[in-house]
Amino acid sequence: MQNNRIGSALNEICSIEETAGQDRWVNKLHPLVKLFVTLFYIVLVVSCGRYDSDRLFGMILYPVVLFNLADLSFRDAVKRLRIVLPLVMLVGIFNPFFDRQTVTRIAGIPVSGGVVTMFTLMLKGVLTVLASYILIATTTIGKICYALRLVHVPKILVTEILLIYRYIAVLLSETRKMTQAYELRAPGRRGVAFREWGSFAGLLLLRSMDRAGELYESMCLRGFSGEFYPSGVRKAEAKDILWLLLWCMVLVLLRMFPVVRMIGSLVVK
Q1: What are the backbone angles phi and psi of residue 111, rounded to the nearest 5°?
Q2: How far apart are CA 130 and CA 253, in angstroms?
Q3: What is the pTM of this model?
Q4: Which of 60, 121, 142, 199 is the most exposed place for a label (fewest CB within 10 A)?
Q5: Enclosing domain of residue 55
Q6: Other Cβ atoms closer than 10 A to 176
Q7: What is the rounded CA–CA span in Å between residue 117 and residue 91?
Q8: Alpha helices, DSSP H only, in the chain?
Q9: 56 and 28, same structural domain?
Q10: DSSP secondary structure letter of residue 72
């Protein structure tokens, strides 16, 4: 059972990397452009006021369009983010108890400010997490690090991000090997015995450090010096600039005007 969970986690990491490396035109966009659009979107979403649910609801357009253009599965995204999304949605769950003043009515039913702010905070968290997932699912970690270096993020910080991401798979792989060996030597037990947690964790740390050191030496032998030159990255072209300007204009319009309410009023009329 434990090995199945670890294997599933490893498969998820490999699956995301394969998805990010696919030959789709969204994946081929310049990584710096995608990084800037994602950060710009997150800033606009977070900057929405606690009662600006109308404007915030219009920001759903970005993940909806990107999920379709990049051919990403929303079901897979929810499955992969099943731990993060509930935590994000719990941020404003107590707001209805503190802010009970009625601010609007829906179908004649009074809605308090706490309910509105709770919905706003939840939606903010979900949208920012989905935007980050879209970036990771359409851009490999090497290209993301390359984009970070282009905006002069310190090399040591970018290197740490890359190595942590890479070594997660190493840690999981070593954990699976040790867990499998433990289960073969102690058949019938469910998981590692409590009295053996300390020695198991210590041995896992030592094995992971040895394996990580071997990987780093291999990287150095292949010419790694802290800079990132991923394959397939080109200079920004007209389509990249157009993508950047188009989304910046659309997101600013969605942030400034309650587009959803305006469309709803036209439909009602």
Answers
A1: -120, 125
A2: 20
A3: 0.82
A4: 199
A5: 1-140+234-269
A6: 18
A7: 10
A8: 2-20, 25-28, 31-47, 53-58, 61-69, 74-80, 84-89, 95-98, 113-138, 141-150, 155-185, 197-221, 238-256, 259-268
A9: yes
A10: -
- What token pair was written down for 87? 């935590």
Alpha carbon distance 228, 159 (integer Å): 9
Q: Give domain status of residue 36, yes or no.
A: yes
Distance (Å, rounded) from C-alpha 59 to C-alpha 213? 44
Q: Are strands 109-112 and 102-106 parallel, antiparallel or unpaired?
A: antiparallel
In the chain, how many domains are there? 2
One domain, residues 129 and 22: yes
Structure tokens at 60: 């759903």
Specify whether 161 is located in the same domain as 202. Answer: yes
Residue 145 in any domain: the answer is no
Structure tokens at 265: 């009023």
pLDDT tens per residue across all 269 residues of the chain? 555 667 677 777 777 888 887 888 888 888 999 999 999 999 999 988 777 777 888 899 999 999 998 888 888 888 888 777 777 777 767 666 776 666 666 666 766 767 777 888 888 888 999 999 999 999 988 888 888 888 888 888 888 888 888 788 778 787 888 887 777 777 766 767 777 778 878 888 888 788 778 877 887 887 777 666 666 667 778 888 999 999 999 999 988 887 767 666 665 55
The helix or strand, by DSSP H or E, that contains position 232, with its residue range, turns out to be: none
